[in-house]
Structure formats: structure tokens, C-alpha cells
Amino acid sequence: MAKKKAEGYLSGREARRIAKENRRITNAFEKQRKRKNVPESEYLTQMADPNNAVEFDNLHTYFYTDAGVVKSVDGVSFEVPIGKTVGVVGESGCGKSVTSLSLMQLLQRPQGQVVEGEIRLNMGDKAYDVTKMPNEQMQKIRGNYVSMIFQEPMTSLNPVFRIGEQVDEVIFLHHGEGKTKEEVKARTIELLEMVGIANSKGVYQMYPHELSGGMRQRVCIAMALACSPKVIIADEPTTALDVTIQAQVLDLLRNLKDKINSSIMFITHDLGVIAEMADYVVVMYAGRVVEKGTVHEIFSNPAHPYTIGLMASKPVVGKKIDKLYSIPGKVPNPINMPNYCYFKDRCEMCVADCEGEYPCQVQLSPTHFVSCYRYYDKNKQGGEV
Q: Can the peptide bond before residue 328 be classed as cis, meaning omega within 30 degrees of 0?
């Protein structure tokens, strides 16, 4: 790690040395990624459990910046079961979106790279390791098997093209073989109706700026569902919407998931949305999974101090308080993470063992896992389960 000056800035020489080293590392990753005619055997793998749609296994995604290496996702492991909704929750910058972008291979490259781990995608008769897939193969997976509803619909939609043209393009690219323009248009209008847009033929001719936020979000959902994908990543799809539209979008996602029998990876800050939508919950902090379990386990028996803090910081209907709880302190610097528990400096439940290295995962029940020293003695184990 380059030595910084007292005011926190790198010298020009140090910055150039870091940039040169970053280019060397990222060029090697890019060269591997851009290869042509890669044999399928290189990225074929086996699912640990065939009932899972996606398995993240020890995923490490780093960003090589001029100030140093940002370990945005630092050893994340969790599963998305077939036909279920997994809620990924945590504060801004904890690595939720980067985890999903790693699955889609949409990281900002060459700075952003998956450096270690596997992302296993269940294709039915076989499984692919997405981290090893070349670009040309990944283009066949995106949209067909995995699709994403992005966070901000106004920036996801192209402002200079009509709504119809943008949804048509998705169908043409993936399912357009042998279809006429009229058939594709009919499918687009059907999709717009499916997501609850009443004036679908009128909206087909409109530009994004002519629609409200809720309508634009529905168009984004229609685009994501155009090819009936097996896995839908919903990256805070209701953040920019008011409460009534939010409820409609959540109902829509729930109904459509059952209709096309897909799995949803739902990323949000909103614990209320998670409680309503998810079957399983993954709590992330500073690039790592600190707790995961069923929605009932996480909400009725939160184990990690960070999860407990999140639960305490949400308002409760009918409960009058003067001030909402907020977790003290701040997230550690992602370029220079400590070698102990990342939450230790903010934790109000520290024990003597917390001085040790980062805690391993402890199993509290068949589906409930937590990374915290407080549970080592109770479970007589401190290791990956």
C-alpha cells in the first residue's frame, strides 16, 4: 500500500506507480475476457445444489483506482433458489449493486474486475460459471436468462428513441429470428399491457420524457421481462417512486415472477419492502455478507449487531419516539480495510474476541448464518459451514 501524506493525498510518483500497476493487472484480465472461440468446457461448471438458479461462491470484485484497489465485493457467498425472491440489504456502498453487476458482466471496465470466486448460473441441463464466460457468450445470456431492472429509469432509457423502439430492440436481439416487425410490435404492446400500462399503443409512440416516473419504471420492467428470463435482478426498482406506485410495482413483480416462474434478486435499502417481497434475506456490510437467512429468521431474530442496528433504525407504525436510532461511526475506508471485523469500530456489542481477525461464518440454524464472534462459544465452532 502506497504511503500517503498527512493530508491524505498521494504524491505524483506514487499515483503513477499505482496507475502503471493497475494497467498491468487489468490488461491481463481484459486479454482473457476478449478471447474469441473459447471452448464451452472452460466455463462449464456444476451447481452445488440443482435447486438454485444462481450461486455466488467466494466472489471478489475489485476496482483498480488511482488511489489504490477498492475491494468492493470481498468474498461474498449466497444462493438464489429457483422460484424464490432473495432480498439483498445494506447501506449505500456495501457492494449490493456491484454483486449484481458482476453477475451481468456489466462492471465499469477495465477498472472493475472479478478477481476471484465463481458465479454459477443454472441453465437447466447444464451450469455456467459467469466469471469465466467470454463477451460473445455473455451477450446470449443477458436478457434471455438473466435480466436487470435498473435503479433509475430515466437514465436506463434512451431519451432520443421512442418507448416502442427500445422494447422492440430487446425482442429483435434475442427472439427476433423469423419474426416480422408487426409481430414484434404486438409482443411489445402485450408486454406494456402486462406491466399495467393502460394506454399501451399510445405509450409505444412516446418518448421517455413524456412519461411519469412510475410509467418509466414499468417500461423498464417490461424490457427486463421481454424474454421471460429465469433470473430477474431488481436494483432498487422502487426508490424513485411514491408509496402508492411503489406498492403497485411490487405487486406487479410478485405476480409476474409467479407467471413466468423466475427467481428475483431484490436489492434495496427498504426493510419494509424486503419483509413484504423476500423469501430469503442477505445482509451486506462493507463488501461482505454479515448475515443471511429466511425472512422470518432475519426479522424475528436478527443476530449480527449491524442487522440489529438496521432493524432499530426503521420507524414503527404506532410507536412514538423522539428520535430514530442511527448506527454510530462510519464505514471503514474501502482502499485500506482493517484485518479485524469491519463493523467492530461501530459495534455496541463488542466482546473480547473481537480483537481477532475477521470472524468466520457461524451456523445458527439450517438456513441462518452470521459472521460474529458473539456466537462462537454458543455454537462451539468458528468456521465456514
A: no
Question: Hey, which residues does 64 pair with through a beta bridge?
Answer: 69
Please tell me the predicted confidence (pLDDT) of residue 322. 79
Sign of the torsion formed by the C-alpha atoms of 186, 187, 189 and 193:
positive
pLDDT value for 245:
76
Yes or no: say if 246 and 277 are a contact pair by the CB < 8 Å rule.
no
CB atoms within 10 A of CB 289: 27
Q: Are strands 280-285 and 288-294 parallel, antiparallel or unpaired?
A: antiparallel
Q: Are 194 and 152 in contact (CB under 8 A)?
A: no
The answer to whether residues 173 and 189 touch, using CB atoms and an 8 Å cutoff, is no
Residue pLDDT, tens place only, 316-370: 777 787 788 888 888 888 888 888 899 999 998 888 888 888 999 999 999 999 9
Which phi and psi angles does 348 have, rounded to 5°? -105, 10
Burial profile 340-368: b = 16 or more Cβ within 10 angstroms, e = fewer: ebbbbebbeebeeebeeebbebbebeeeb
The span from the CA of 211 to the CA of 188, in Å, is 17
Q: Are 190 and 167 in contact (CB under 8 A)?
A: no
In tens, the pLDDT along 33-89 reads 888 888 889 999 999 999 999 999 999 999 998 888 999 999 999 999 999 999 999
Confidence of residue 240 (pLDDT cuts 50, 70, 90): low
Rounded to the nearest 10 degrees, how much is the dihedral formed by the CA atoms of 326, 328, 333, 338?
-130
For the chain, give every domain's residue range: 13-145+229-379
To the nearest 10 degrees (0 to 180), the angle between helices 181-194 and 163-175 is 110
CATH number of this structure's domain 13-145+229-379: 3.40.50.300
The C-alpha atoms of residue 12 and residue 118 are separated, in whole angstroms, by 36
